[in-house]
Specification:
The chain is built from 12 helices and 9 strands. The protein is an alpha+beta fold. The strands form 2 sheets. Strands 2, 3, 5, 6, 7 and 9 form a 6-stranded antiparallel sheet that branches. It has a 3-stranded mixed sheet with strand order 4-1-8, with no helix packed on it.
Length: about 425
Amino acid sequence: MTFWLLITLMIVLSLVFALRPLLFRNIRQNSKDDQAHISVYRSRLSELAANKETGVITSTQADSMRKELEQNFLQIIENQPDNKDITEENNSSGQRWGTVAIIAVVTPIVAISLYLLIGSPNAINPAKEAQHTQSEQQHSIIDMVTQLESRLELETNDVEGWSMLARSHMTLHNYEKAAIAMQRLYELVGDQADVLVRYADVLTMLHGGKFSGKPQDFIDKALDLEPEHPMGLWLAGMASAEQGEYQTAIDYWYRLLPQLANNDAESSSVKAMIAQAQQELGQDRADDILNEENVATGSTITVNVSLAASLLDKTSPTDTLFIFAKPPSGPPMPLAVVKQQVSDLPITVTLDDSMAMMPTQKISNFNHVLVSARISKSGNAMPQSGDLITGSHSITVGNQEAVDLFIKDTIGVK
């Protein structure tokens, strides 16, 4: 509102300066000249009468000179603007005011139209600007990934290139392509702890958050190589909790905590998982492990989800809609998931602990979570190219205000 008030003020000031010559143009005036002619005429009549009184001129001469004086005065008056001139002046004034009206209307329209055409209207709306920036960043990543893939077709042994490609596909939630890149990286470097845990993380996401099988094998091998590997301990604890081995999970996470002393967010997340695992075992929560403020039993999150009109033709009513809540850091496994259909849009849903995918990972364990939504034609919980998505939005757990999610982007499409 402030922006548009300033724009209006600037337009008004511009119009004042532009229209001033037309609004205040001097109209031809002759009143001063008329007064001067009348004064001279009266002076000469008085002089003529005085000469007649004193006998300087005769009455006949006086009458003749008076008539001549009157004729001269009338001739001067006739040379002043007549009614035709006044009418022309009035017409000119009407044309002038018409010009003023046209300029006053056209100038703001042209100025605002040009701004909307070549300016940045989104800059006055922080939310829209943020969405625009997020979309541009995603497109930049996609462009970079495309170029990197082209280069790796020629430089197939570039270790750093394959590592970067895997990270990029994880960022874009292209888990299948990330797994292919990690497979090539693993072939090039062999059993390295960092590569093994990253590969396990990718395969876990690819298989719907399940650690059993190859991901578990990679985690175990990584911890054999580096027993205190941070991400290995994190994933090992989650894998153990998935199998119901809560004490083993707690042991792994206790080993991890000292390495997170300088990372409050991840440390709080691990403490919350330890507390949850202790609850599953019927143990009391230790005050030095979990701050009660981080747990809000029954905490909920409300989200409003809508779809951009421009994407309606890319969906069908039966397409699957996923709505997620995820932790702000650590493994990207969802804390809660709601599954609906496109036909339900726009929709308002509430996420809570009853929707948790794992008993150790619940919304109530966090102060803040990330929420997002995705439309999948295949119905697969894992993102795929062509899925329609929103950005991730941070929201405070227990906040009474709903967060708006707007589906307007496509995975893997510029």
